[in-house]
Amino acid sequence: MKISTTYMxxxxxxxxxVGASPLGDxxxxxxxLVDAGAAAVVMHSLFQEQLDADQFSSLYLRxxxxxxxxxxxxxxxxxxxxxxxxxxxxxxxxxxxxxxxPVIGSLNGSRPGGWIRYAEHIEQAGADALELNLYAFPxxxxxxxxxxxxxxxxxxxxVTESVRIPVAVKLSPFLSSLPxxxxxxxxxxxxxxxxxxxxxxxxxxxxxxxxxxxEPHGENPHLQLRLYWLAVLAMHLKTSLAISGGVNSGExxxxxxxxxxxxxxxxxxxxxxxxxxxxxMLADFRNRMEEHRCDSIEDLRSxxxxxxxxxxxACERIRYMHALQRPTL
Length: 329
Ligand SMILES: Cc1cc2nc3c(=O)[nH]c(=O)nc-3n(C[C@H](O)[C@H](O)[C@H](O)COP(=O)(O)O)c2cc1C
Prior knowledge:
Helix content: 40-55%
CATH class: Alpha Beta
Number of helices: 16
Bound molecules: flavin mononucleotide
Number of domains: 1
Distance between the termini: 41 Å
Strand order of the largest sheet: 3-4-5-6-7-8-9-10
């Protein structure tokens, strides 16, 4: 049985990947996670606000913070965010030397601008691939969904045309027709899609999120949402698919790959439970592969229940209806 996988054309020893976070900043920590079985590392993001030539956004945030508004709203002091771009690029080189597995840089922005040229710098620094995070929270009622999507596709096109390394796009689930946008992102040059961004409550309990135990009713809502969309996108698209969010155990990995993921990006579990989490997850994942007589990741991916469904949309409505009509505890 083999658990090697291919993500955006890059061969990886297993589907377990360290997701974008400070875990990739710390050379020692990243190496421990790789020794425990992680097959690639995604760096934390370089943010548009750090890079934009006009610096407007940073100044705005700085002012908000200076007069206490930002603190009251729970914003992080922007000066704490500013790993300089030079330091970021140097870090890519350091991590790459230290871990000996593919390293994926991350750019995070929502409006076209000068920051996009950092894709080239990240490539030149030696990153094997780039993750483009388009995190945005549109709040202007005069801007249509089509305008928002057009802008995101423009950014994807600009980035993918500026580099030779493969580019994955980290998406938000809040799109009216996710499969349509995902196909357009693929046509715009995305070699991979990462499902999904998570939205953070600064007061939230990350440790609870990383827990191995199931939530009430045995559901993990972050995982469930992603499994559904993985299964839908895997039916229609050729791009690589990554899950990010809610993968805390080997069982979660098994479900994600079965739904269509080529890789599982994990942050919270590794952050709160350390390299032991990676070892446990991989051991459990292998056991489940054996139990189900799966020879390879492709074999498991081909077992998605959605492949056999004529109308996943109708099935999802029935599943939803059953869930709501289940007797309560
Ligand atoms: C402390 C922390 C920092 C993060 N930084 C980034 C980042 O810089 N860029 C990014 O795209 N995602 C970032 N994320 C989001 C993660 O990559 C991931 O999408 C999210 O944590 C969900 O996965 P999980 O359930 O395994 O934690 C961060 C998450 C955490 C907890």
